[in-house]
Amino acid sequence: MSTLEIKDLHVSIETEQGTKPILKGVDLTVNTGETHAIMGPNGSGKSTLASTIAGHPRYIVERGSITLDGEDVLAMTVDERARAGLFLAMQYPVEVPGVTMTNFLRSAKTALDGEAPKLRTWTKDVKSAMSQLRIEEDFASRNVNEGFSGGEKKRIEILQMELFKPRFAVLDETDSGLDVDALKVVSEGVNRAQDTGTMGTMLITHYTRILRHIKPDFVHVFVDGRIAEEGGPELADRLEEEGYDRFAATETATA
Ligand SMILES: Nc1ncnc2c1ncn2[C@@H]1O[C@H](COP(=O)(O)OP(=O)(O)O)[C@@H](O)[C@H]1O
Ligand SMILES: [Mg+2]
Hints:
Elements: E1 3-15, E2 18-31, E3 35-39, H1 46-54, E4 59-68, E5 71-72, H2 78-83, E6 86-89, E7 96-100, H3 101-113, H4 119-132, E8 143-144, H5 150-164, E9 168-172, H6 180-195, E10 200-204, E11 218-223, E12 226-231, H7 233-242, H8 245-254
Parallel strand pairs: 3-10, 3-11, 6-9, 9-10
Antiparallel strand pairs: 1-2, 1-4, 4-5, 7-8, 11-12
The structure holds adenosine-5'-diphosphate and magnesium ion (MG).
C-alpha cells in the first residue's frame, strides 16, 4: 500500500500584481484504494493543488510538504514524479501536434516503466482500453488531442490512466463538458482502475453528478485555498442540495 501525504501546503504564484497566495494550508492524505473527491467553488485552488502535485513550475511552494511513501515529492522533477507513479489528468489537456497517439502512448509507457512494453500485449491492451472507452480506432493514428472535442480529450486522459497504471491519479474536472453517455464511459474507466486495488484517486470536481457514478470514500470541500469541510459521501449529497452558498461568506470575508 502507498500513501500520498500533503501537509500544511502553502502555494503562491507570481502575477503582474506581485506574489499571490493561493493555497493556504492544505492537509490531505490519500491511501491506495481510496477515492477522495475534492470539491469547491471556482477559483478555490483545486487545479492549483493538482498542478503543484504534478510539479508545474508556475506554482511556488512557500511552506509544507508533499510526500509519497515518505519520499519528498517536491524535490522530484516532473519526470521523476511521473515515474514514482503520480498521474495528472489535466482540466485542459494540451494538444501535441506532430505526435501520434500510438507513439505518444508507447514512448510515455516506456519512459514510465524504464523499458518498452512487449509489443504484442501492448497493442492488445491499447486496443481493448480504447474500445472500453469508446474511442474509435482511427484515433491511434491522429496527433495527440489535435482537433479532439472536449469529451474526447477527457476520454484520452482516462485511456492514459488505464494504460500507465499510476499509484495515484489526480483527475481535474474530468467530468466537465461530458454528455451523459461520455460521463458514464469515463466513470467506468475510473472505476475499473480503482477496482484493481492498486491506485488511489483524487477526483477534483465542481459538480456532484460524477459522484453518482464514482463513489468517493471521502469528500473535501475547498474554499479559498483551504479545506473548509470534510466528510464521507453524504457531504456530496448535501452539496448537491445546498450548493456552495453556505461557504460563500467565508470566501468573501478572506478574499
Ligand atoms: N496562472 C494564474 N495567473 C493568475 N491567477 C491564477 C493563475 N492560476 C490560478 N490563479 C488564481 O488562483 C486561484 C485558484 O485557481 P484554481 O486553482 O484554478 O481554482 P479552481 O481549480 O478551484 O477553480 C484563482 O483565483 C485563480 O484566478
Ligand atoms: Mg480548476
